[in-house]
Amino acid sequence: MDSALLIKFGAIGDVVMAIPAAHQLHLAGYTIDWVCGGAVAPILAAYDWIRPIVADDRAILLGSRTAKLVALSEVWRALPQLRYDLCATLYYDSRYKLLALPVRAKRKLMLSTTDRATRLIPGRHHTDEYARILLGREDGVRPTSLPPVRPDRIPLSPVVRSSSNPQVILAPAGARNMFRDDALRRWPIELYVDLARDLTARGYDVTLIGGPEDGWASPMFAGVPVQNRIGSFTLLETLGLLDQSDVLVTHDTGPLHLAGLTSVGVVSIFGPTDPYGRLPRRANTVALWGGEGFACRPCYDGRDYAPCADNACMRQISPRMAAEQVLAVLHQRSTAPRPPRIVTLESKGK
Q1: How far apart are CA 327 and CA 324, in angstroms?
Q2: pLDDT value, residue 94
Q3: 52: pLDDT confidence band, cut at 50, 70 and 90?
Q4: Which of 62, 192, 285, 331 could form a disulfide with 266 if both were Cys (CB 3.0 to 4.6 A apart)?
Q5: What's the CATH code of the domain at 65?
């Protein structure tokens, strides 16, 4: 049996979008070892065919020289073998190359900004690009996109539904990592609050989710009859909640990609990033893409955003527009599933 070592720490969305490519390798007969950060390790461990190898990513990237050497040596000792058929470092940053230093492989690759064969082509879905790169495919016609791969184990929801009302989840924060806070990716918090008021007035049960670092959003919903579970759940518990809910509304952040692994309907809001490369490719997912007619959209170049002061592309999406899509996704979940859709202001006017 062939063996593959993948090196991809996070963020959550990047790891989730790489899983279908790893699954293609697994189906081709490879065993999959995956060097990852502790934050995403529980997600990878939910797949029976992935063996996570947890690295101290903070020490490796931000620690002192001594801390980096200790963290690297711990990864090397944890590797079940040092010879692989494929060793793939799914980063452009050369610092990550150190993780694969002692590994010998028949095929060893790293993302490159100059070699088309190992570069993520802008505008294409990252899942398909990872598959093209890992499988060494020619850059030709690929008529179908790889869907997300459901984990082998998703726990029950930590929240017991108390009514038969539609269950809508809002993830209003996120969009940050250990290096920076990407506030331009977030739909403005006051618009989430207006949407929550609209949905609860319709009789929907609305729950807020997010990580421990997202507590800043909680006070904004004071007086709105929502269940505030921000900072309450682990990643796996969040998967369970999403899988047994009806619709998630969020922007380009980790919960969007977690939702793609489940059966929940998805309404996502995009602006500076391109939904064609990130919206989960499965039924009952829709992206509202703000900034129609803006010459600067998308402004994210893979590393940085434009120095934008007002986030106008995201503000172009109103709570009413988001509520309309929630209703549409609820309807299609109860009738006939629809393929993923990207909605712009121009397409809504036709």
Answers
A1: 5
A2: 86
A3: very high
A4: 285
A5: 3.40.50.2000
Expressed as residue numbers, the domain containing 58 is: 2-135
Give me the long-range contacts of 191-197 (CB less than 8 A, separation at least 24).
Answer: 191/315, 191/317, 191/318, 191/319, 191/322, 192/217, 192/220, 192/249, 193/220, 193/221, 193/224, 194/319, 195/170, 195/249, 195/319, 195/322, 195/323, 196/170, 196/221, 196/224, 196/226, 197/224
Residue 170's pLDDT is 98
Burial class (CB in 10 A: 0-12, 13-18, 19+), 92: middle
Same domain, yes or no: 182 and 326 = yes
Residues 59 and 185 in one domain: no
% of the chain residues with pLDDT over 90: 76
- On whether both 127 and 177 belong to a single domain, the answer is no
Residues 181, 310 within the same domain = yes
Alpha helices per DSSP H over 207-318: 235-243, 254-260, 312-315
Does residue 284 surpass a pLDDT of 70? yes
Give the global pTM: 0.92
